[in-house]
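Format notes (please read before filing issues)

Several people have asked whether sequences and structure tokens are stored in separate files. They are not. Every record keeps both together, in the order shown below: the sequence lines, then the token lines. Line labels are part of the format and must not be stripped during preprocessing.
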Amino acid sequence: MDTKYIFTNEKGEFICFDEHNEIYISQCLYKAFCSSNIQQLISIFNAIPPEYTFNNWYIENYSHRVEEQFRYDLAQNQNKNTKNKTSTKSKRIKIRMNTKKKLFDKYNGRCAICGKLLSLNPEEHGDFITVDHIVPLDKGGKNVYSNYQATCCACNLAKTNIMPEVFKNSMKSVLFTSIIEEKEYQDTLLRVLIKIKIIHFAIVIKSFLI
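Then the structure lines:
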């Protein structure tokens, strides 16, 4: 199969022929005149009208240019799809104080993740309440009350844009690793278990006495 060539320039324009065999310029690759006949290419180059000669024309392999154009079009389509997906993502908005108060009551004034005491006033005791998106905005979450939870600053920063189930599993893994490897956490867990055991035992005794 003979290699075909086209005339192009640095502006990405091509020499084309209309139905009357008149030369015209187009940026459409698929309208470009192509030929494998070197003598024909030379004669066409010599026939380029004076108004077009300043564009520094040169010959290029037609198949290579088609492949290059295909890769460019594919990249453009991928960028377009990415922009469309990004445009559907909800933008972050400022959460009103009355919404924070409702969440504060909903979660009994404690962080929904770690249970730490929260505050509606940064000068009071407890962490100042922050609002976390349960399903992150860049994962398709919305700016709606049902997607909000009250959190302390530390948990909000730790969770960032992680999905809730992934975040919980990660925290469990960190906690269990700490318990296994660090004596401080082992002692704390033991005290908690003993306390729970004593409370449970007291409830059982009380049930017998009633």
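For reference, the curators noted about this record: The CA atoms of residues 19 and 31 lie 12 Å apart. Helices lie at 38-46, 62-87, 97-106, 153-159, 164-181, 183-209.
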